[in-house]
Amino acid sequence: MSDSTDLKKAGLKATLPRLKILGILEEPRARHMTAEDVYKALLDMGEEVGLATVYRVLTQFESAGLVIRHNFEGGRSVFEINHGGHHDHVVCVECGEVFEFYDPAIEERQRRVAEALGFHVDSHSLYMYGTCLGMKREGRCSKKGIPGTGVS
Amino acid sequence: MSDSTDLKKAGLKATLPRLKILGILEEPRARHMTAEDVYKALLDMGEEVGLATVYRVLTQFESAGLVIRHNFEGGRSVFEINHGGHHDHVVCVECGEVFEFYDPAIEERQRRVAEALGFHVDSHSLYMYGTCLGMKREGRCSKKGIPGTGVS
DNA sequence: TTTTTGCATGGGAATCGTTCTAGTTTACAC
DNA sequence: GTGTAAACTAGAACGATTCCCATGCAAAAA
After folding, report:
1. Beta B88-92 vs B98-101: how paired, if at all?
2. Global confidence as pTM
3. pLDDT-derived band of residue B146, with 50, 70 and 90 as boundaries?
4. How much of chain B exceeds pLDDT 90, in percent?
5. Which end of chain B has the lower number of beta carbons within 10 A, N or C?
6. Per-domain residue ranges for chain B?
């Protein structure tokens, strides 16, 4: 299905900025990007899109369920395309690498906890912060956020 | 043990702002507060402490392990006193109420996931967002953040 | 097709939470 | 008590995000 159809389904007009932004986020190498990352990617493509529009569109995408917003440590939001399957994150604070995982047992226990509290869960997030294998083994994490991960 | 001793142990001078802020966070009703909440509490007590000092002190307390910083949805940081026992959080997005829980099974699974990735975990956070029992049962959540929770 | 209507956009200003800077004050070892 | 490094205050600065508004554009109505 085309991006254009995805947008219409979400009740959003298929405008150029929205199509471009969706396209960027769908690239496999995109993974986790800040609004700024997306903005820079647009500029690199030669598109004249305002930063305000990027923020507006990302928020709309989030409401429409097309992307997931994460509030990793550090204050700024990072976005990733929503491929449907929920997963949690492991973030290397040294190199910014982000790993994803899904553990049915954890999901189930969370569901039980919420149930016991009589709580209706809209969303949940689980992040682990630390240092990745590369760091331990070779000390080669750059200590600077990897471009495109939105983590520094 | 006095707050003053706690601070010295953490390698921090026992200054008036630090003692007052620690005192505020230790009150049972404090639970989860933003820097702004703490600042307002100080003003209410008639203390002349700058907002910048509140931020600086909270960050120092975090480094010293005296408080835990959380990045709940919404961008701003909330702080809670560290009583030693790790726990996770359930946040009602309607009334701002925060519930705490600890699930050994979840902790164990997380440990395993990190191990499998060869990842060294410094910290982890698990938040569930939704609506609490009060909301469902009586619709009495105020739709506005409860003062002192730092959540809105 | 032309007109109307209303959402979308871009750019800059505004806002929010947070951190930095400069100059002054304070805690605490001696 | 005194000296010195650390901590303080107020306000400016900062980065991320949102707001504002004049302009643009595309679907609906005429």
Report:
1. antiparallel
2. 0.84
3. very low
4. 58
5. N
6. 1-84, 86-152
Longest Cα–Cα distance of chain A, Å, equals 53
Sheet of strand B98-101: strand arrangement: A98-101, A88-92, A120-131, B120-131, B88-92, B98-101
Distance from CA of B40 to the nearest CA of A (A): 22
Cβ–Cβ below 8 Å for B130 and A119: yes
Q: Tens digit of pLDDT for each residue in B122-139?
A: 889 999 998 887 655 555
CATH fold of B1-84 reads Arc Repressor Mutant, subunit A (1.10.10)
Q: Do A130 and B114 touch (CB under 8 A)?
A: yes
| Domain B86-152 fold | Dna Ligase; domain 1 (3.30.1490)
Structure tokens at A143: 């200590």
Between CA B17 and C1' C23 the distance (Å) reads 19
